[in-house]
Write a structure and sequence with these properties.
- The protein folds into 2 domains: 211 residues, Tetratricopeptide repeat domain (Serine Threonine Protein Phosphatase 5, Tetratricopeptide repeat), CATH 1.25.40; 111 residues, no CATH class.
- Helix 6 packs antiparallel against helix 7 and helix 6 runs parallel beside helix 8.
- The chain is mainly α.
- It contains 16 helices and 3 strands.
- Strands 1-2-3 form a 3-stranded mixed β-sheet, with helices on both faces.
- The longest helix has 23 residues.
- It is globular.
- The protein is 59% helix and 4% strand.
- Bound molecules: zinc ion (2 copies).
- The site of one zinc ion has 6 residues, from helix 9 and helix 10.
Length: 339
Amino acid sequence: MRPDTPAENVDHTAEAARLERTAGLYPEDAEALLLQSAAHLELAGDRPAATTLYDRLLSSSDSLDDPHLIRALKAANLWEYGHEAEARAIIDGIRATAPRDPAPWVIVAESLEAHDELEAAHKTFTEGVTLLLADVPEPPPHACHPLLFGRHRVRRMLGAAHDDWDVLADTLHTSPVPLDELHDPKRVWSLGSDNPAELQAEISRLRAELGAYREELSRPFPVAVLHWPAGELAELVAAYPALSDEYPSHEEHLAGIEASLRELSASGTPNLGIVTGTVPSYEAFAASEASSPSDTDLLPQYATTLAARGRAMSWPPERGAGCWCGSGVAYAGCHGAGA
Ligand SMILES: [Zn+2]
Ligand SMILES: [Zn+2]
Protein backbone atom coordinates (compact mmCIF):
# COMPACT_ATOMS: atom_id res chain seq x y z
CA MET A 1 0.00 0.00 0.00
CA ARG A 2 1.33 3.41 -0.84
CA PRO A 3 -0.09 6.81 -0.01
CA ASP A 4 -1.52 9.20 -2.56
CA THR A 5 0.90 11.08 -4.78
CA PRO A 6 2.26 14.28 -3.17
CA ALA A 7 0.45 17.36 -4.44
CA GLU A 8 3.48 18.75 -6.31
CA ASN A 9 3.78 15.59 -8.43
CA VAL A 10 0.16 15.48 -9.56
CA ASP A 11 -0.51 15.51 -13.31
CA HIS A 12 -3.40 17.96 -12.97
CA THR A 13 -4.73 17.50 -16.50
CA ALA A 14 -4.88 13.72 -16.16
CA GLU A 15 -6.39 13.96 -12.68
CA ALA A 16 -9.08 16.37 -13.93
CA ALA A 17 -9.99 13.97 -16.74
CA ARG A 18 -10.14 11.02 -14.36
CA LEU A 19 -12.40 12.86 -11.89
CA GLU A 20 -14.67 13.89 -14.74
CA ARG A 21 -14.96 10.27 -15.92
CA THR A 22 -15.68 9.22 -12.35
CA ALA A 23 -18.43 11.85 -12.12
CA GLY A 24 -20.06 10.15 -15.10
CA LEU A 25 -20.10 6.85 -13.18
CA TYR A 26 -21.44 8.31 -9.93
CA PRO A 27 -23.95 11.02 -10.79
CA GLU A 28 -24.97 11.30 -7.12
CA ASP A 29 -21.44 12.53 -6.30
CA ALA A 30 -20.97 14.57 -9.49
CA GLU A 31 -20.97 18.00 -7.83
CA ALA A 32 -18.03 17.23 -5.52
CA LEU A 33 -16.13 15.39 -8.26
CA LEU A 34 -16.56 18.09 -10.91
CA LEU A 35 -15.57 20.84 -8.47
CA GLN A 36 -12.34 18.99 -7.79
CA SER A 37 -11.84 18.35 -11.47
CA ALA A 38 -12.20 22.10 -12.10
CA ALA A 39 -9.68 22.82 -9.33
CA HIS A 40 -7.16 20.56 -11.10
CA LEU A 41 -7.84 22.32 -14.41
CA GLU A 42 -7.15 25.66 -12.72
CA LEU A 43 -3.92 24.29 -11.28
CA ALA A 44 -2.99 23.02 -14.75
CA GLY A 45 -3.54 26.56 -16.07
CA ASP A 46 -6.49 25.54 -18.26
CA ARG A 47 -8.87 28.18 -16.92
CA PRO A 48 -11.30 28.13 -19.88
CA ALA A 49 -11.85 24.39 -19.35
CA ALA A 50 -12.49 25.03 -15.64
CA THR A 51 -15.10 27.66 -16.58
CA THR A 52 -16.78 25.12 -18.85
CA LEU A 53 -17.07 22.71 -15.92
CA TYR A 54 -18.47 25.37 -13.58
CA ASP A 55 -21.03 26.27 -16.26
CA ARG A 56 -21.93 22.63 -16.73
CA LEU A 57 -22.59 22.28 -13.00
CA LEU A 58 -24.60 25.51 -12.83
CA SER A 59 -26.77 24.52 -15.78
CA SER A 60 -27.43 20.99 -14.52
CA SER A 61 -31.03 20.32 -13.66
CA ASP A 62 -30.15 18.50 -10.42
CA SER A 63 -30.38 20.59 -7.31
CA LEU A 64 -26.91 21.64 -6.27
CA ASP A 65 -25.57 21.44 -2.71
CA ASP A 66 -23.91 24.85 -2.94
CA PRO A 67 -24.61 26.86 -6.11
CA HIS A 68 -23.18 30.03 -4.51
CA LEU A 69 -19.83 28.35 -3.97
CA ILE A 70 -19.73 27.22 -7.62
CA ARG A 71 -20.55 30.77 -8.77
CA ALA A 72 -17.87 32.19 -6.50
CA LEU A 73 -15.24 29.76 -7.82
CA LYS A 74 -16.31 30.55 -11.37
CA ALA A 75 -15.94 34.30 -10.77
CA ALA A 76 -12.50 33.91 -9.17
CA ASN A 77 -11.38 31.74 -12.08
CA LEU A 78 -12.75 34.13 -14.74
CA TRP A 79 -10.96 37.11 -13.23
CA GLU A 80 -7.66 35.18 -13.34
CA TYR A 81 -7.72 35.08 -17.12
CA GLY A 82 -8.95 38.51 -18.02
CA HIS A 83 -12.74 38.29 -17.69
CA GLU A 84 -12.91 40.99 -15.06
CA ALA A 85 -16.32 42.48 -15.93
CA GLU A 86 -18.06 39.12 -15.85
CA ALA A 87 -16.31 38.20 -12.62
CA ARG A 88 -17.38 41.46 -10.96
CA ALA A 89 -21.00 40.95 -12.04
CA ILE A 90 -21.05 37.48 -10.47
CA ILE A 91 -19.38 38.75 -7.29
CA ASP A 92 -21.94 41.57 -6.97
CA GLY A 93 -24.70 38.99 -7.44
CA ILE A 94 -23.31 36.77 -4.68
CA ARG A 95 -22.99 39.70 -2.26
CA ALA A 96 -26.58 40.74 -3.02
CA THR A 97 -27.86 37.19 -2.50
CA ALA A 98 -26.09 36.99 0.90
CA PRO A 99 -25.57 33.21 1.14
CA ARG A 100 -25.59 31.64 4.60
CA ASP A 101 -22.49 29.56 3.84
CA PRO A 102 -19.10 31.19 4.60
CA ALA A 103 -17.21 29.56 1.70
CA PRO A 104 -18.57 31.72 -1.17
CA TRP A 105 -17.94 34.89 0.90
CA VAL A 106 -14.33 33.88 1.45
CA ILE A 107 -13.75 33.01 -2.21
CA VAL A 108 -15.13 36.28 -3.58
CA ALA A 109 -13.48 38.47 -0.93
CA GLU A 110 -10.13 36.79 -1.60
CA SER A 111 -10.63 37.27 -5.32
CA LEU A 112 -11.11 41.01 -4.78
CA GLU A 113 -8.08 41.04 -2.47
CA ALA A 114 -5.96 39.18 -5.03
CA HIS A 115 -6.71 41.97 -7.52
CA ASP A 116 -5.73 44.70 -5.02
CA GLU A 117 -9.30 45.77 -4.34
CA LEU A 118 -8.64 45.97 -0.63
CA GLU A 119 -11.56 48.25 0.24
CA ALA A 120 -14.04 46.05 -1.61
CA ALA A 121 -12.49 42.93 -0.08
CA HIS A 122 -12.82 44.47 3.37
CA LYS A 123 -16.49 45.35 2.76
CA THR A 124 -17.19 41.83 1.51
CA PHE A 125 -15.49 40.11 4.45
CA THR A 126 -17.40 42.40 6.82
CA GLU A 127 -20.75 41.69 5.15
CA GLY A 128 -20.11 37.95 5.49
CA VAL A 129 -18.97 38.19 9.11
CA THR A 130 -21.92 40.39 10.06
CA LEU A 131 -24.42 38.12 8.37
CA LEU A 132 -23.04 34.83 9.69
CA LEU A 133 -21.64 35.71 13.11
CA ALA A 134 -23.63 38.67 14.51
CA ASP A 135 -26.03 36.49 16.51
CA VAL A 136 -23.87 33.38 16.94
CA PRO A 137 -22.52 32.55 20.41
CA GLU A 138 -18.71 32.28 20.66
CA PRO A 139 -16.69 30.42 19.68
CA PRO A 140 -17.90 30.77 16.08
CA PRO A 141 -18.09 27.61 13.92
CA HIS A 142 -14.80 26.49 12.41
CA ALA A 143 -16.09 27.08 8.86
CA CYS A 144 -16.37 30.81 9.66
CA HIS A 145 -12.77 31.23 10.86
CA PRO A 146 -11.38 31.99 7.36
CA LEU A 147 -13.83 34.91 7.13
CA LEU A 148 -12.42 36.40 10.34
CA PHE A 149 -8.80 35.67 9.39
CA GLY A 150 -9.24 37.10 5.89
CA ARG A 151 -10.90 40.21 7.26
CA HIS A 152 -8.08 40.61 9.81
CA ARG A 153 -5.48 40.30 7.02
CA VAL A 154 -7.13 42.92 4.79
CA ARG A 155 -7.60 45.33 7.70
CA ARG A 156 -3.91 45.05 8.57
CA MET A 157 -3.07 45.84 4.94
CA LEU A 158 -5.38 48.87 5.15
CA GLY A 159 -3.79 49.98 8.41
CA ALA A 160 -7.11 49.79 10.31
CA ALA A 161 -7.10 49.53 14.11
CA HIS A 162 -8.32 46.29 15.69
CA ASP A 163 -12.03 45.94 16.33
CA ASP A 164 -13.85 43.18 18.23
CA TRP A 165 -13.86 40.82 15.25
CA ASP A 166 -10.08 41.24 14.88
CA VAL A 167 -9.53 40.45 18.55
CA LEU A 168 -11.69 37.34 18.09
CA ALA A 169 -9.63 36.36 15.03
CA ASP A 170 -6.43 36.66 17.08
CA THR A 171 -7.79 34.38 19.81
CA LEU A 172 -9.05 31.77 17.33
CA HIS A 173 -5.81 31.55 15.37
CA THR A 174 -3.69 28.64 16.58
CA SER A 175 -0.66 28.49 14.28
CA PRO A 176 2.80 29.13 15.79
CA VAL A 177 3.01 32.55 14.08
CA PRO A 178 0.46 35.00 15.57
CA LEU A 179 -1.94 36.59 13.08
CA ASP A 180 -0.64 40.08 13.87
CA GLU A 181 2.85 39.03 12.83
CA LEU A 182 1.66 37.01 9.84
CA HIS A 183 -0.51 39.89 8.59
CA ASP A 184 1.85 42.72 9.46
CA PRO A 185 1.95 44.80 6.27
CA LYS A 186 5.41 46.08 7.21
CA ARG A 187 6.69 42.56 6.75
CA VAL A 188 5.43 42.67 3.21
CA TRP A 189 5.88 46.26 2.16
CA SER A 190 8.76 47.77 4.11
CA LEU A 191 11.45 45.17 3.59
CA GLY A 192 12.14 46.96 0.37
CA SER A 193 14.61 46.30 -2.38
CA ASP A 194 17.64 45.79 -0.13
CA ASN A 195 16.50 42.23 0.53
CA PRO A 196 14.39 40.89 -2.31
CA ALA A 197 14.72 37.29 -1.11
CA GLU A 198 13.16 38.14 2.24
CA LEU A 199 10.41 40.13 0.58
CA GLN A 200 9.73 37.23 -1.75
CA ALA A 201 9.54 34.84 1.19
CA GLU A 202 6.95 37.04 2.91
CA ILE A 203 4.85 37.30 -0.21
CA SER A 204 5.00 33.54 -0.66
CA ARG A 205 3.89 33.08 2.93
CA LEU A 206 0.83 35.27 2.44
CA ARG A 207 0.03 33.60 -0.87
CA ALA A 208 0.28 30.19 0.79
CA GLU A 209 -2.20 31.27 3.42
CA LEU A 210 -4.61 32.49 0.74
CA GLY A 211 -4.19 29.33 -1.30
CA ALA A 212 -4.46 26.86 1.57
CA TYR A 213 -8.11 27.55 2.28
CA ARG A 214 -9.00 27.32 -1.38
CA GLU A 215 -7.19 24.00 -1.66
CA GLU A 216 -8.92 22.68 1.42
CA LEU A 217 -12.28 23.44 -0.16
CA SER A 218 -11.55 21.60 -3.37
CA ARG A 219 -9.38 18.77 -2.03
CA PRO A 220 -10.61 17.92 1.45
CA PHE A 221 -8.60 14.69 1.52
CA PRO A 222 -5.43 15.15 -0.53
CA VAL A 223 -4.11 11.96 1.05
CA ALA A 224 -6.38 8.96 1.57
CA VAL A 225 -5.09 5.51 2.44
CA LEU A 226 -6.95 2.43 1.25
CA HIS A 227 -8.32 -0.05 3.80
CA TRP A 228 -9.70 -3.50 2.97
CA PRO A 229 -11.85 -5.28 5.60
CA ALA A 230 -10.72 -8.90 6.22
CA GLY A 231 -13.40 -10.56 4.05
CA GLU A 232 -12.86 -8.17 1.15
CA LEU A 233 -9.08 -8.58 1.28
CA ALA A 234 -9.36 -12.39 1.26
CA GLU A 235 -11.67 -12.22 -1.75
CA LEU A 236 -9.42 -9.70 -3.52
CA VAL A 237 -6.22 -11.73 -3.14
CA ALA A 238 -7.99 -14.98 -4.09
CA ALA A 239 -9.30 -13.38 -7.28
CA TYR A 240 -6.07 -11.49 -8.09
CA PRO A 241 -3.11 -13.49 -6.70
CA ALA A 242 -0.69 -10.90 -8.12
CA LEU A 243 -1.81 -8.61 -5.28
CA SER A 244 -0.56 -11.00 -2.58
CA ASP A 245 2.88 -9.31 -2.63
CA GLU A 246 1.15 -6.05 -1.79
CA TYR A 247 -1.01 -7.66 0.88
CA PRO A 248 0.79 -10.58 2.58
CA SER A 249 -1.74 -10.68 5.45
CA HIS A 250 -4.67 -8.70 6.80
CA GLU A 251 -2.85 -7.91 10.08
CA GLU A 252 0.14 -6.48 8.20
CA HIS A 253 -2.22 -4.55 5.93
CA LEU A 254 -3.87 -2.88 8.96
CA ALA A 255 -0.53 -2.19 10.68
CA GLY A 256 0.79 -0.73 7.42
CA ILE A 257 -2.16 1.69 7.15
CA GLU A 258 -1.58 3.04 10.65
CA ALA A 259 2.20 3.27 10.10
CA SER A 260 1.80 5.14 6.79
CA LEU A 261 -0.65 7.60 8.26
CA ARG A 262 1.57 8.31 11.26
CA GLU A 263 4.54 8.83 8.96
CA LEU A 264 2.55 11.22 6.75
CA SER A 265 1.28 13.07 9.79
CA ALA A 266 4.81 13.36 11.23
CA SER A 267 6.00 14.81 7.92
CA GLY A 268 3.38 17.56 8.24
CA THR A 269 0.84 16.29 5.70
CA PRO A 270 -2.57 17.73 6.64
CA ASN A 271 -6.03 16.26 6.05
CA LEU A 272 -5.39 12.55 6.24
CA GLY A 273 -8.12 10.00 5.70
CA ILE A 274 -8.94 6.34 5.28
CA VAL A 275 -11.20 4.92 2.57
CA THR A 276 -12.64 1.40 2.67
CA GLY A 277 -12.55 -0.67 -0.50
CA THR A 278 -14.86 -3.42 -1.72
CA VAL A 279 -13.99 -5.91 -4.45
CA PRO A 280 -16.97 -5.12 -6.73
CA SER A 281 -16.39 -1.38 -6.56
CA TYR A 282 -12.65 -1.85 -7.17
CA GLU A 283 -13.39 -4.08 -10.19
CA ALA A 284 -15.77 -1.45 -11.56
CA PHE A 285 -13.09 1.20 -11.04
CA ALA A 286 -10.46 -0.92 -12.87
CA ALA A 287 -12.90 -1.43 -15.75
CA SER A 288 -13.57 2.32 -15.93
CA GLU A 289 -9.80 2.88 -16.18
CA ALA A 290 -9.54 0.16 -18.88
CA SER A 291 -7.07 -1.65 -16.64
CA SER A 292 -6.76 -4.89 -14.68
CA PRO A 293 -7.49 -5.07 -10.94
CA SER A 294 -4.08 -6.81 -10.61
CA ASP A 295 -2.33 -3.55 -11.52
CA THR A 296 -1.02 -2.20 -8.19
CA ASP A 297 -0.79 1.31 -9.65
CA LEU A 298 -4.57 1.40 -9.58
CA LEU A 299 -4.78 1.02 -5.79
CA PRO A 300 -3.81 4.60 -4.84
CA GLN A 301 -5.95 5.97 -7.68
CA TYR A 302 -8.89 3.96 -6.39
CA ALA A 303 -8.27 5.42 -2.91
CA THR A 304 -8.12 8.96 -4.29
CA THR A 305 -11.34 8.42 -6.21
CA LEU A 306 -13.20 7.12 -3.16
CA ALA A 307 -11.95 10.13 -1.19
CA ALA A 308 -13.05 12.48 -3.97
CA ARG A 309 -16.52 10.94 -3.76
CA GLY A 310 -16.67 11.94 -0.11
CA ARG A 311 -16.12 8.40 1.18
CA ALA A 312 -13.08 9.10 3.38
CA MET A 313 -13.22 9.11 7.14
CA SER A 314 -10.72 11.40 8.73
CA TRP A 315 -7.74 10.05 10.60
CA PRO A 316 -6.92 9.96 13.47
CA PRO A 317 -10.37 9.15 14.90
CA GLU A 318 -11.90 11.59 17.40
CA ARG A 319 -10.95 11.13 21.04
CA GLY A 320 -12.81 8.11 22.49
CA ALA A 321 -14.08 6.97 19.07
CA GLY A 322 -13.83 3.38 17.84
CA CYS A 323 -10.81 2.28 15.82
CA TRP A 324 -10.91 2.84 12.07
CA CYS A 325 -10.24 -0.89 11.50
CA GLY A 326 -13.76 -1.78 12.63
CA SER A 327 -12.67 -3.93 15.60
CA GLY A 328 -15.22 -2.21 17.84
CA VAL A 329 -12.42 -1.34 20.28
CA ALA A 330 -11.53 2.30 21.03
CA TYR A 331 -8.77 3.62 18.75
CA ALA A 332 -6.46 4.23 21.73
CA GLY A 333 -6.73 0.55 22.73
CA CYS A 334 -6.38 -0.76 19.15
CA HIS A 335 -4.33 0.63 16.25
CA GLY A 336 -3.91 3.94 18.07
CA ALA A 337 -1.94 2.32 20.89
CA GLY A 338 1.31 4.20 21.49
CA ALA A 339 0.27 7.07 19.22
ZN1 LIG B 1 -4.75 40.93 15.39
ZN1 LIG C 1 -7.80 -1.12 15.05
